[in-house]
Amino acid sequence: MKIALIGYGKMGKEIEKVALSRGHEIVCIIDINNQEDFNSHAFRSADVAIEFTNPKVAYSNYLKAFEAGVKVVSGSTGWMAEHGEEIKDLCLNWGKTLFWSSNFSLGVCIFFALNKYLAKIMNRFEAYDICMSETHHIHKLDAPSGTAITLAEGVLENLDRKEEWVKGEAQTASQLGIESIREGEVFGLHSVRYDSQADSITIIHDAKNRGGFALGTVLAAEYTHEHEGFLQMSDLFDFLK
């Protein structure tokens, strides 16, 4: 499979290593200094472009890739609230393809499924209140993290007493608070805590390195090569449905 990389920071370099180890070819690398390469033959020859940049440019990168006729896999977060419906429409009704996830790690996917299952159980036990926290490196621009928002949405789908998530401490009983911490070079630490007067239950995912994210991203690219539309990890792993 021919892969183009959009964004060549630490994550892009890790994805490159995994892709090459699985026998794929990197045909184009686009970073901040060579944006004109979106119009290059090399980029247009890619089967899939893998995009890891930041909330400020992710949306425009998708449009440039779509214009070149290239499918996209992206882990960039922070753009969905403003442009999510437009991108979904392009994928569902206009023949474009984006595989998007707030987190491509297999471990996080299992954590997502566990989080939903626990919320279903806890829906019966109103004595337990819930809060969430996420910690990332100081370079991360968006807060809460896309992974934390996905976890919160999984809770809201299954816990009737919570109606919305909020950044920081909850102000009402119907809110789910998400604390965001930025320190050092933390790859990603997410926790979901249920607390009552009797006891507490906490589930945690702690990423040790970028390897799990990179492998999941390349697996998603392999899936995207053969599929179309607006794709997510629930398409790749049926236990998320």
Question: Would you give an account of this structure?
Answer:
It is a single chain. The protein has 241 residues and is α/β, with parallel strands linked by helices. 37% of the residues lie in helices and 24% in strands. The protein has helices at residues 10-21, 41-44, 58-67, 80-93, 106-122, 146-158, 211-225, 233-236, and strands at residues 2-6, 25-30, 48-51, 71-74, 98-100, 129-136, 164-167, 175-182, 189-195, 200-206, 230-231. Helix 1 packs across helix 7 and helix 5 (106-122) runs parallel beside helix 6. The mean pLDDT is 96.
Descriptive key words:
241 residues; alpha/beta; elongated
Detail the topology: elements first, then pairings.
Elements: E1 2-6, H1 10-21, E2 25-30, H2 41-44, E3 48-51, H3 58-67, E4 71-74, H4 80-93, E5 98-100, H5 106-122, E6 129-136, H6 146-158, E7 164-167, E8 175-182, E9 189-195, E10 200-206, H7 211-225, E11 230-231, H8 233-236
The number of strands is: 11
| % residues in beta strands | 15-25%
Q: Characterize the main sheet.
A: 6 strands, parallel
The structural class is alpha/beta
Termini gap: 28 Å
Biggest β-sheet: strands ordered side by side in the sheet: 2-1-3-4-5-11
**Which shape, going by the Cα principal axes?**
elongated
Low-confidence spans:
none
* SSE run: EHEHEHEHEHEHEEEEHEH
The number of distinct helices, counting runs of at least 4 residues, comes to 8
The radius of gyration is: 19 Å
Average residue-wise pLDDT: 96
Short description:
The chain has about 240 residues and is of the alpha/beta class. The chain has helices at about 10-20, 40-45, 60-65, 80-95, 105-120, 145-160, 210-225, 235; strands at about 1-5, 25-30, 50, 70-75, 100, 130-135, 165, 175-180, 190-195, 200-205, 230.
